[in-house]
Write a structure and sequence with these properties.
about 180 residues; mainly beta; 4-stranded antiparallel sheet; 2 helices; 10 strands
């Protein structure tokens, strides 16, 4: 019987990941939502055991504004001020695993073609539903040193308010449409 007593923390500092996807080697990737700040973008991340990607719940835009007002202090947010939300740069905090890149707008679904669906040329591609933009985009990740880089980024489909995407056990690609 599962009672939750054996749950372990695998990684920290991710913000509202929109599903998780594994590649053929079992490496874990996610696309998380941003902290609702103007100019900030969602992150494509490589998630490793014990990693910290930097996000803390108290850095959400509404919390920072409320706390600064209550304390009568200027707004300071390490997420933005220390640029924890962007890919690696030389002066970045060393304790985080930075994003591979800033990518997407409002991801709502994320999956990877296991090779059982679509055309052979689409095998191994990742798919992201970008909800407000009515897009489904697709890309590949290739190893780049200790990380990865995106290649072959395309718009797979446009016009659908897709809220989710996944490959079924029958090998087909399924998309949940928000409607309208």
């Amino acid at each position: 019987e599962f009672d939750g007593s054996h749950i372990e923390v695998f990684a920290r500092g991710l913000r509202n990941c929109m599903e998780l996807a594994f590649d053929d080697a079992g490496r874990l990737f996610c696309i998380d939502n941003d902290g609702d700040y103007e100019g900030e973008r969602e992150r494509l991340g490589y998630v490793t055991q014990g990693s910290d990607s930097g996000w803390r719940i108290n850095w959400q835009s509404s919390y920072v504004a409320e706390w600064a007002e209550q304390q009568r202090l200027p707004r300071y947010n390490p997420w933005l001020n220390e640029r924890l939300h962007v890919p690696h740069f030389d002066a970045q905090a060393a304790y985080i695993t930075p994003a591979l890149m800033n990518y997407s707008d409002g991801p709502a679904g994320f999956t990877r073609n296991p090779g059982t669906a679509l055309a052979p040329s689409d095998e191994g591609r990742f798919f992201v539903t970008q909800f407000p933009g009515k897009l489904i985009t697709s890309f590949r990740l290739v190893e780049d040193g200790a990380g990865f880089r995106m290649t072959d980024d395309i718009v797979f489909h446009a016009g659908l308010m897709a809220a989710g995407i996944n490959f079924g056990p029958d090998g087909r690609l399924y998309v949940a449409d928000w409607g309208g």
